[in-house]
Amino acid sequence: MDDAAKISVVIPVYNEAGTIGEVIRRVLDCGFATEIIVVDDASIDNTTKYLQSLEHPQVHCFYHAVNRGKGAALRTGFAAARNPYVVVQDADLEYDPRDYHHLLEPLLDGRADMVYGSRFLGGPHRVLFFWHYVGNRMLTLASNMLCNLNLTDMETGMKAFQRDKLMTLKLSADRFTFEPEITAKAARARWRIYEVPISYSGRTYEEGKKIGWRDAIAAVTAILYYRLAD
Q1: N or C end of the chain: which has fewer CB within 10 A?
Q2: Distance between CA atoms of 154 and 147, rounded to whole angstroms?
Q3: Residue of 192, 177, 172 lying closest to 115 (CA atoms)
Q4: Does residue 185 surpass a pLDDT of 50?
């Protein structure tokens, strides 16, 4: 593992004033030469105020004037990324930057174009909702069937890419449908895709979890659309 590898970590954030500072601290301490790109998707809590007060040479902040969704925030971040490897990191402490060493290994040794950090391959995880787990597995199954893949966790919020490969894709999904879109388009482009186990500290809805059943319905529609569309 090459700890000197340069990575760009893209963090889409919406109303995470309580966690964004700690997420940034953990990413800065991940062991790689890192630039952090935070995209504030028009937060209405104190997230924007915190980011505007932040001064760090490795942290670059971008701001959407209106809320456009996770996918739109990621596109903004991807366009700003300058390092050879790009990592997607959620802003809510559910995913641990200490897992980057496992996540990046297949990229750094030349095996992969894209790596999924799977919550279902044996890493430690907080025990939470059965039906949320079932929903994740069913969405992954549907994506696998249409994309001819054998992923265990299509919806994971921790993914890594070769930047040059990532920039060849024309992405358009604005919200959580980014996950099925990137999967379908990577499969169609015949990318070399790997999975590695990661830890997962899921939140309850009371603690701020944002994904619900409406997002699951949108994901099913997106799986069909992005697999079948030209």
Answers
A1: C
A2: 11
A3: 192
A4: yes
Burial category of 53 from C-beta neighbours within 10 Å (exposed 0-12, middle 13-18, buried 19 and up): exposed
* Distance of alpha carbon 83 from alpha carbon 143, whole angstroms: 29
Euclidean distance between CA atoms 224 and 142, whole angstroms:
9
* pLDDT above 90 (res 183): yes
Residue 208 has pLDDT above 70, yes or no: no
- Asked, for residue 199, whether it belongs to a domain, the answer is yes
Dihedral, CA of residue 131, residue 136, residue 142 and residue 143, to nearest 10: 170
pLDDT, mean over the chain: 89
d(CA 1, CA 111): 13
Q: What is the pLDDT of residues 86-112, one digit of tens each?
A: 999 999 999 999 999 999 999 999 999
**Which residue reads 């700890």 in tokens?**
3
| DSSP per-residue string spanning 154-206 | TT-S-EEEEHHHHTTS-----STTHHHHHHHHHHHTT--EEEEE--B----TT
Position 205 scores a pLDDT of: 47
The residue to which tokens 């590695």 are assigned: 196
Question: From CA 88, how far away is CA 91, in angstroms rounded?
Answer: 10
Residue 197, domain member (yes or no)? yes
Residue 96 sits at the vertex; the CA angle it makes with 193 and 27, to the nearest 5 degrees, is 100
Residue 20 in any domain: the answer is: yes
pLDDT at residue 45, rounded to an integer: 96
**Structural domain range at position 179:** 6-228
